[in-house]
Amino acid sequence: MTEPVNIRFGDNPKPIARRDAEERRQRIVDVAVDLYREEGADFSMDHLATVAGVGRATLYRNFSDRTALLIAVLERHLEVFAADLEKWRDRDDAFMLGVRFLADRTRSSRGFGNVALLDKQSPGVAKWATGVMKALLAEPLERAKAAGLIRDDFPLEDYTLLILMIAGVQRGSRPEDVDRRTDRTIALLRQALSPQRTLSES
């Protein structure tokens, strides 16, 4: 397995890099995130280097191949996700907000939505990424259950199914309808997950 680049979610400390080297690396990742969103997954590494304003040697010193780059992009999305959950730490509906965030990223960013493909190239990445998401969503889910928003028998592992449901609606909608239909889908899911019925009765 290619190790997650600059991973911040494990027990290992983050490697210390020179400030200018870290800034270049972050700029490369920022540009890659934008390119995956705007151009899809077919942009060349040379194009990335040009847009990021770095040489090929700098690019490949930071990311030996596209797999390493995509892992770094995935990590960036997870960092943003963790930051948003922290902002929502006092909200009882943070779990569903987090699920929507992940669905939005699955739809809009090929860098985030390609986790399954990435796992074929670097076995273990999908397990790592879903493990991070699961760990981040655990406390918000318990908070939602305690507030009576989600029934107690809803298993944390099923968050992936909620994401796929929402992302599926988004992908099947016209651009001008995405927000409205996403809001409606989440409202239906919240109703279905309310504590009034158990999953076995659904």
Describe the structure.
With 202 residues, the protein is mainly α. It contains 10 helices and no strands. The chain has helices at 19-39, 45-52, 56-62, 66-87, 94-108, 110-113, 115-121, 125-146, 159-171, 178-192. Helix 5 (94-108) packs antiparallel against helix 8. The longest helix has 22 residues, at 66-87. Residues 1-7 have low confidence and may be disordered.
List the topology elements.
Layout lengths: L18 H21 L5 H8 L3 H7 L3 H22 L6 H15 L1 H4 L1 H7 L3 H22 L12 H13 L6 H15 L10
Helix pairs in contact: 1-2, 1-4, 4-5, 4-8, 5-8, 5-9, 7-8, 9-10
Q: Count the helices. How many?
A: 10
How many domain units? 1
Distance between the termini: 40 Å
Strand content range: under 5%
The general outline is elongated
Going by CATH, the homologous superfamily would be Tetracycline Repressor, domain 2
Helix-and-strand structural type: mainly alpha
Which features characterize this protein?
mainly alpha; Tetracycline Repressor, domain 2; single chain; 202 residues; elongated
Short overview:
It is built from ten helices and no strands.
